[in-house]
Amino acid sequence: MGCLTCSSTTSCSTCDTSVFFALDASNRCSCIEGYALNGTVCKTCDSLITGCTICPSKSICTQCRTADNFLLSNSSCACNTGYALTGTACQTCSSLMVGCLTCSSRSVCTSCDTNNRFLLSSSLCLCQDTFYFNGTGCPTCDPACVNCRGTATNCTSCVKGKYLMNGNCLTCAVGCLDCTLSTQCNSCGDGFNLVNGICKCNTGT
Fold first, then answer.
1. Secondary structure class of 187 (helix, strand, coil)
2. How far apart are the C-alpha atoms of 108 and 55, rounded to whole Å?
3. Are 167 and 154 in contact (CB under 8 A)?
4. Kind and range of the H or E element at 93?
């Protein structure tokens, strides 16, 4: 393959350089560096193994495009830590999933940016308690909220001493430490007794 002139059936004299063949030490035509034989044609290593720059065969890579965040792994090219393969390019995990530092694919995160209040949950990065996702980051929820969604004041759960009503955290009745409704207290403070969900003053208090 690729031989233009030959001195015998096993010895080539000149190769077809226009299709990326070159004469090797054994007087045979081999693909030039950066190419490998695929059938009868020399193909670029990158077209055979994504991210590969040098390959002795179509399935074995020996050098990858490190400038584009590829690294050699088991005779192939994988994206560097903090990157994932998207098509034929390595993209940062953070550009694929907000808050993600490292990922095993474009949709599976393995570690999140805890310094910016993200935590890992089922391969995704979610905002930590008392913070909410605004599209780019995790700002703080209203102090009355344990969790909120979309805005700081759209609460989904409340701190102790408050109860949730239509996204708002309202204060429990007087003497109540923890409640599910204004009329449904679960525990009372000193000097109060819990009677049918209501905190009543102790006799003589």
1. strand
2. 30
3. yes
4. helix 93-96
Q: Cα-flanking dihedrals φ and ψ of residue 173, to 5°?
A: -65, 165
Render pLDDT for 122-168 as a digit per residue (tens, 0 to 9): 999 999 989 999 999 999 999 999 999 999 999 999 999 999 999 99
Taking only the tens place, the pLDDT of each residue in 34-89 is: 999 999 999 999 999 999 999 999 999 999 999 999 999 999 999 999 999 999 99
Instruction: Name the β-bridge partners of 42.
Output: 37
The residue among 127, 125, 74 whose CA lies nearest residue 102 is 125
Please choose, from the candidates 38, 78, 82, the residue with its C-alpha nearest in 3D space to the C-alpha of residue 58.
Answer: 38
CA contacts within 13 A on the Cβ side of 23: 11
CA-CA distance, 143 to 123, in Å (whole number)? 28
Do 80 and 88 touch, CB atoms closer than 8 A? no
* Host H or E run for residue 47: helix 45-48
Spatial CA neighbour of 181 closest among 168, 155, 162: 162
Per this entry, what is the length of the chain? 205
Identify the pLDDT of residue 204.
58
pTM as predicted:
0.74
Q: Does pLDDT of 99 surpass 60?
A: yes
| CB contact at 8 A, 51 and 89 | no
